[in-house]
Write a structure and sequence with these properties.
Layout (H helix, E strand, L loop, with lengths): L10 E5 L4 H12 L3 E6 L2 H13 L3 E6 L5 H15 L4 E4 L21 H29 L2 E6 L12 H24 L4 E8 L8 H4 L9 H8 L13 H8 L10 E4 L10
Parallel strand pairs: 1-2, 1-4, 2-3, 4-5, 5-6, 6-7
The structure holds nicotinamide-adenine-dinucleotide.
Length: 272
């Protein structure tokens, strides 16, 4: 069993590796012997996480790259290849939501600004496509690799108010299946593309929905989410790590084009 999950000597690129959820993925992968390239917009944060990994005996570099700027991704790819020699695992974690792209008491559907809608669609969906174009190329050259997209519970069934983000993540699910088939048909039967769909994690991107800014108490929405989560808690970054190791490794050698919910049972529960 141990060998099934063996990742030693592999290289992973983690976009959004500077963030709350994906920094933990980078740290865990590195602890399993993976050379980790931590990509994000914030140089200091990338360096900090890479240093933390190196201090723990792992191998890592922090790189600034914008998933919406293909040139910066190309530069990052060349650095990763020259430092680490291959790209075996790609985690597309750069993503997020913003208040102005969701309906609220102050903002109705008809007034949602185009700029905010585009921001969310581009960051989550286009950013995932561009990253796969750039970091998928070495996988095609070496005819092997595992791509893990980060979707969301909002992609499987629409969540009230969360318009653009749910749509962008649903598009990621569609793209995950599409790319899995496309790469197998055209390039290699040994490249797999899957996604994980995290449920509700109390983090920066959604705390405006779950915690009342003024009182610091959980919102009615936050309480409803917990009522609909059989495991009755929000997720923690650590809850995602097992699925990431599984999808990155040979343990999932015949798993392709799927979206795995990691949601404490939220998507299984009909509410009655
Ligand atoms: P986060 O905001 O902590 O991390 C996102 C990271 O992406 C940040 O480090 C940011 O610098 C980086 N980033 C933003 N724009 C970028 C760009 N243009 N190019 C490169 N990097 C960029 O968010 P998180 O909560 O850790 O979420 C990580 C992923 O998980 C996201 O795709 C998010 O949509 C998804 N997700 C989060 C939750 C949740 O509850 N937090 C639930 C489901 C899915």
């Amino acid at each position: 069993m141990e060998n099934l999950f063996d990742l030693s000597g592999k290289t992973a690129v983690i976009t959004g590796g500077t963030g709350v959820l994906c920094s933990q993925m980078a740290i865990k992968l590195a602890a399993c012997g993976v050379k980790a390239a931590v990509l994000g917009l914030d140089e200091d944060q990338g360096q900090l996480i890479a240093r933390q990994i190196r201090d723990q005996g792992g191998q890592a570099i922090g790189l600034v790259a914008d998933v919406l700027d293909k040139e910066s991704l190309n530069v990052a790819r060349d650095i990763v290849l020259s430092e680490f020699g291959s790209i075996d695992i790609l985690i597309n974690g750069a993503g997020g939501n913003k208040k102005e792209a969701s309906c609220s008491a102050d903002l109705d559907f008809f007034s949602l600004p185009q700029e905010a809608l585009e921001w969310v669609f581009n960051l989550n969906f286009l950013g995932t496509i561009l990253s796969c174009q750039v970091f998928g190329q070495p996988m095609v050259d070496q005819k092997k690799g595992s791509i893990i997209n980060i979707s969301s519970m909002a992609s499987l069934r629409p969540l009230t108010n969360v318009l653009a983000y749910g749509g962008a993540k649903a598009a990621i699910n569609n793209f995950t299946s599409w790319l899995a088939v496309h790469l197998n048909h055209n390039y290699s039967k040994d490249i797999r593309v899957n996604a994980i769909a995290p449920g509700f994690f109390l983090t920066k991107q959604n705390e405006f929905l779950l915690v009342d800014e003024e009182t610091g108490q959980m919102t009615e929405r936050g309480k409803r989410i917990l009522d609909h989560t059989p495991m009755a808690r929000f997720g923690t970054p650590e809850d995602l790590l097992g699925a990431v190791l599984y999808l990155a490794s040979e343990a999932s050698s015949f798993v392709n084009g799927t979206v795995i919910p990691i949601d404490g049972g939220f998507s299984a529960y009909a509410g009655v």
